[in-house]
């Protein structure tokens, strides 16, 4: 495992400037990696796309669908029996009305349960999109790398552990929560 200092930038120009500053601080080309992090939901972690197996906001929809199905079957069946008794005496009407009511109730129940949880579910992505500059550091250089990234305008600077091979952070996960680093307050000297 390697110790890695990471910063997120809004543009490649800012990230390139930070990389040049790191090279000036004697970080090698195999010690600095620059890559783009896609926006939430666009990381293609699954063969059909997306980041998660299921939308967390949809989770309560199943229970809502069951509740709506039962209520819809009862209401639809009651309406069907009323129509059969007082209007049209055709035997499939109560059954058809119960199925239509069950379908409508299941749909309405699922949607109503999901709507209440929607705002909470929108925060599943752990990292913001942007250009990432990652630097492999030694035990003596993490403060220097954090100072360079901060002075170059980096957002979400973090200090973490990971697998670093061939100049790249191999086990980077766009869904892992960013761990903010306690960074020093010293300013980088002008070079």
Automatic annotation (TrEMBL):
Transmembrane segments: 62-84, 90-111
Start and end residues of each stretch annotated as Disordered: 166-191
Domain of life (superkingdom): Bacteria
Keywords: Membrane, Transmembrane, Transmembrane helix
Name the UniProt record assigns to this protein: Glycine zipper domain-containing protein
Organism the protein comes from: Pandoraea vervacti
